[in-house]
Design brief:
single chain; 232 residues; alpha/beta; Arc Repressor Mutant, subunit A; 2 domains; 4-stranded antiparallel β-sheet; 8 helices; 11 strands; elongated
Amino acid sequence: MRILVIEDDADTGQALRTGLEAEGYSVRWARTGEEGFFEWHAERPDLVVLDRMLPGRDGLEILAAIRRSAQPSPVLMLTARDSVQDRVSGLEAGADDYLVKPFAFPELLARVRTLLRRSHEAQGALRRRVGDLELDYGTRRAFRAGEELGLTPREFDLLGYLALHAGRIVTREMLAADVWRETNRATPLDNVIDVHMANLRRKVDQGRPTRLLHTLRGLGFTLKEDGREDAP
């Protein structure tokens, strides 16, 4: 597995490269945002460990470029910023996971393994259909009746998760933990989730004879093809 580390701090970058190589990964280390951007385009690694604050191209700029690609790599974002808003903005921009410095290497390694496993599982099931809705996890594109929906990275993450749980109830707690990677319920994401669900529903269902996305009051959401609303 190939990992690209984009980190301008020499001590952190060297420690990450040494530690990950000791675990058997092939590691490239870029010290600036510009270098990291070109390394990613050249190598298309299996995973990117990306510092948010970088000289040259900012980490969020690189993340946006990765997410626009037809074959985006999973991204674990690192930051010295510990505020909830900073973490949420990074995840909203499309990071797959977020780790605050200073961190313990075993925790970073566990997150790296989880992201690589999820990516491998997605590669094993690249397409999924629910009714006339089709999701391509490889290119991160979604279509309904053959028409591309034009989803944002977060909307695709959300719809992709619902598709993997099609026909089952998905709670806001599940979405906060698994899509937004936020487990601190002292800072609930319910309003953020509801806004994204409303936007996603417009793109998926508006103008269609059959609804696929449903809100189950007091429970959560479900994606199903029979088009019937559940009783509250």
